[in-house]
Structure formats: C-alpha cells, structure tokens
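REQUEST FORM: STRUCTURE PREDICTION
Request ID: SP-0412
Submitted by: Lab K.M.
Chain count: 1
Length (residues): 205
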Amino acid sequence: MPEYGRIIQQLVERCKEVSDKEERNEMAAAIIDFMGQRNPQLRDEENYNHKLWDHLFILSDYDLDVDSPYPFPTREQLAEKPKRMEYPKLQGEFKFYGKSILQLIDKAIELEPGEEKEALIEVIANNMKKSYNVYNKEHVTDDVIFRHLKELSENRLDLTGIESLEKSKIYYTSNNNRNNNNNNKNNNNNKNQPNKKRHNYKNRK
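STATUS: Completed
RESULT:
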C-alpha cells in the first residue's frame, strides 16, 4: 500500500517486534492516528476508522497480535472476487425501454382509475416513444407504442382508444402552457417597448 509510505511500513514492522502486548496496542493505536493524518481523504469515507485498522493488518502481512476494535480481514476474504451482479432482464424486443419504464408501468397499474392514472399512462407512452426513437434511430408510430405498452403491462394499461399521443390530454396541456408562456413573454416585450408615436409627436411639437 504505497499511499502510506515507507515510514508507516517501518513503524508497523517495529510494532510487530514489541514483546509487550499492552505496549503493542498503544503503538498500533498511534500508528492508526498517523495513518489517518497521512491520508485525510479517508475521513470522508464511511467507516474510515475500520478501514484504517484493516490497512494496518494488511501492512503487517496479516501477522499482528494486537487488540483491534474490529475483526481483522483474512487473505481469503480480500482475495475473494465480488459476486456477479444480476442485471434486470427485460423481454427481448423491449430491452431498450429500460427498467424505469417497467417501474412506472407497475406504479400506473397500482393507481385507482382517474385523471392521475391517465396522465401517468400518457407520460409513460411519451417516454417509451422517445426511448424507441433513440434506440432504433427511426420514427415509430403511436399504435406500435400502444401495443408495446399493452404487452408490457399484461393488458392492464391500454391506450388504443386514443388516436395519437398528439391528441392526448397531456399533449394539449403542455402545448397550451407553452403557448401561454410565449404570449405572456410577447406581451411583456410590448409593454417594455417605448411609445414611438408619442415620442415623435413630442419632438414635432
């Protein structure tokens, strides 16, 4: 562990040679404090004190008889490879939608029928359309998205009654809000512009 340097390594070797265990314990605690000073970035990590004691034991080549507040690791534990993470498996042709879409679908299924559920379903469909276009690099029709949504939800979410996403409530709401914002912006700009006719009239007078 080169980040601790030769001095700490020499102190650890000296600690191993101390015959009195009480004195060894005191020296080990002092070495731990010194290690923390040499590597202050460890203090930002969780359980940093535990890590320092582990590092001390590793520096001693797993051969240090001291009373540690934590159990020392073994060579076998450190050599053990981490378990392989299992990635979520989506249905073959729908893998590009991602796990978040499945979570949203589950959430929509749990909701009681009403405006909130309808709005969430339409949000899911819009995000599915974006994901499809990014992955496949081609335009997808709304009826394909509606079919995929129905299959992923096991026929519990159905938008086939809507002609297109552009005609859904959420589309009109977002676009009306955008148009209102643009109109308000234009009105504010007009209010801030000086009255040219009044100005010209005063100049003529």
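NOTES: The chain has a mean pLDDT of 78.
Reviewed by: T.R.
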